[in-house]
Design brief:
This protein is an all-alpha fold. Helix content is 73%, strand content 0%. The protein has 7 helices and no strands.
Length: 153
């Protein structure tokens, strides 16, 4: 199937998916815009039509991944099922996301420091939202535990 003439949002999604794989495999600094363009099947100018810089691609990947994950976790945590069922569903979904998006997770772990301060803070805030959602559920299951006192080992 040809990807020529894809709508802008589909092309951006394609660029991001290929970039996640490339950055996970070669590292952010090891990946060039030329190699990304070749893998996507567009010119470098085509990449720059969608993203002004390689840094913008990394920022959209990491901030988008973290914020999307946080929103999904909060939706599960705020559901109608029992706290135990929601916690099970939340953990299952996290495992599914980490397995299904291993490249994105690897890039987040290895390349977060490459983002600007504002983008790093956005990722960290999204991570805190995930932790707070899990804390709420664990506290509902074990009300004697105060937030921050949930044993993790």
């Amino acid at each position: 199937m040809s990807t020529a003439g894809l709508p802008t949002d589909e092309r951006r999604a394609q660029i991001l998916a290929v970039a996640a794989s490339l950055f996970a495999r070669e590292g952010y600094h090891g990946a060039s815009m030329a190699s990304l363009a070749q893998l996507v099947g567009v010119s470098k100018a085509g990449l720059y039509h969608h993203f002004p810089t390689k840094e913008a691609i990394l920022a959209e990947l990491l901030v988008g991944y973290a914020e999307g994950l946080a929103a999904e976790v909060e939706e599960i945590a705020d559901g109608e099922a029992s706290a135990e069922e929601r916690l099970r569903a939340l953990v299952a979904r996290l495992v599914e996301r980490y397995e299904g998006e291993a490249d994105l997770h690897r890039v987040q772990l290895n390349e977060l420091a490459r983002l600007g301060t504002e983008e790093q803070e956005a990722v960290r805030e999204a991570e805190r939202r995930v932790v707070r959602a899990m804390e709420r559920l664990v506290s509902a299951i074990a009300p004697g535990l105060a937030p921050g006192e949930v044993p993790v080992a």
